Amino acid sequence: MDSxxxxxxxxxxxxxxxxNIISLIxxxxxxxxxxDSPKDWETAQMVELDHKPSPFESPVPVIHxxxxxxxxxxxxxxxxxxxxxxxxxxxxxxxxxGADSLETSIYESAHHWYAGLLSDAGFTxxxxxxxxxxxxxxxxxxxxxxxxxxxxxxxxxxxNDYSYTQxxxxxxxxxxxxxxxxxxxxxxxxDTFAILKAQVLTTPRHAAHYSYEVTEESIVVKLDGxxxxxxxxxxxxx
Length: 238
Known about the structure:
The chain is of the alpha+beta class. The chain has one domain. 30% of the residues lie in helices and 32% in strands. The chain has five helices and ten strands; from the N terminus they run αβααβββαβαβββββ. It has helices at 2-5, 38-50, 61-81, 102-121, 163-175, and strands at residues 9-22, 85-86, 89-90, 96-99, 129-145, 179-183, 191-195, 201-214, 218-223, 227-233. Strands 1, 4, 5, 6, 7, 8, 9 and 10 form an eight-stranded mixed β-sheet that branches. The chain has a two-stranded antiparallel sheet with strand order 2-3. A hairpin with a 3-residue loop joins strand 9 (218-223) and strand 10 (227-233). It starts with a helix and ends in a 5-residue tail after the last strand.
């Protein structure tokens, strides 16, 4: 582990990162099962907003707050509140993952959906389907650069065993670093970002809607659930 940290450099990062999460293409009204009246739905939504703390201060909060809160919670804050095991966390702290491009975010998220969520549930048969939404999120931070170490430390790119990278993440989290950047293991021409501090992320904006569907040989990725973008070969569990 010591040799990994010797000679590391920082990447002064000021760019948009792609964040790809599960989300319905056509959103649902969460209160329509309580009443048939649209006015009741609006009242329920206002009550919810009035009792929800906001991380933002807007010059026109009546207009901006509901949208800013929803974007912040779903796109940035969620992994810092809901800790889980991942490549750079053993589950004892949260990590936010982003990518340098929408394409890289698709390859990474398609793998983790199929080989993680579906495989763990025993539901990898053809027809499995999910809708997702991609966002751009601004990152401003000096990040640890692990890209220069992937050849000398191939454990950083292991497709299945995360024990080494989890120990790296644990040290960076303990020492208070904002995060790191490294090569994508699912799209070798792309980069991924593991962010440990939510405060270096701002300005989430919608980028695109996608759908993923499992077939016999691949994961079919469509834009807006209609236009074919990619066919990703099944990568197996990892």
